[in-house]
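Lab meeting notes turned into a lecture example. A postdoc, R.K., suggested we walk through two folding results consecutively so the class can see how the record format repeats. The first protein's sequence and structure tokens come next.
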Amino acid sequence: LSEDDQKNYRLIRAAMPRLLNRWPRMQLILRLFPSPTEGTPATSHLWTRLERLVTCFASPRRVVINPLGVADTIKWELLLLGSDVVLCPSLFEPGGLNHRQALFYGCPVVATRRGDMATIIRDPRDRSSVAPNGWFLDDPSDSLGFEECIDDLAVEFENPEAWRRIVLNCLNTPVTWAASIGQYIECYHKLTGQGT
């Protein structure tokens, strides 16, 4: 979650109460970036709003706020190792790192079809999708659509064999930027009429 709401905090906040009620075993770790000590007053305001939201739930261990600073890459990787899913419903994501790291550690991703995420995430609901590794939310402002994505992945999660296949697909997803960069260059050449 970032202070400019690029990571779409509002969507997660809107869906969180219903999802936690519907899925009693669900736990959320909200990664706040930058940490309150590194950010601006807007970061502190976001931190306060998140703390208020966390206190609304009967079991405070179901929602945890984890402020990660710029240098906390090891902590972030440890969180990924212990996670089942990473939510990246970003409003825009030109060349994000979080979803690539999640896939590298075997975590399926719920994402919007924005920028780079659209090039490497494959949704199992798309019949033409080979080796699904995540779920797409078509409208980043659609709280109910976001909840449907979570419901769909929860059904897969309850089936150990299906979930294992998805996790293996994540681990086998190429997460370097080489393929994406090639696609961007090809698109640029088509748009400008310039060849290589």
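The second example is placed directly after the first for contrast:
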Amino acid sequence: QTGYIALCYNNVQGGCGGGCTPPANNVCSTGVPTIAVGTSCSYTSGDIYCASESYTASGCPSGLIQDVWYRFTVTSSGSHTVRVDPSSSMDAVVELRQSSCTGTVLGCIDAGGGPGAVENLILLLSNGTYYVRVYDYNNAGNTTPPATTTFDICVIGPGGGTCPDPTISSLTFDPPNPTAGLDVDFDIVIDNVGTA
């Protein structure tokens, strides 16, 4: 008589066959919470515990991707900051997509600060809806989840935070009336410049 033993391998929390409940925003097509855009950071709590990979990384790779999703709506075009403050063992990666879960990737950030480091993804955005994917960075081949999986996330709109929208107060040319084919020097004076 021959016997069979079922084997499986899965380093995502819960192991093979479950054992934990994925976050409500684990799947982008359902249950994606909306984050309000503010002039200052008002955090929403998040967790990647037991999450799964929606798509392969685009620009910010990781050995293991357990991602969750958020969305926000821009009603005032300009500089926007998506800020993620991860727990002590989580090395957060932030990715932004346009219009939908499968929309164009506008940018991602993993600034290299390591676990617990705050990530600020700063982009000029026009009016519309945007989707944010958050996951943890692991070295290639490393499929071990972080020991802590929680984080806080917020979105800061134009004029908010420490990086206000700059304004050009003067623009001068030398020569003052350039013609085609000439090299032109110009000076720009920018006001209202902050620091990220």
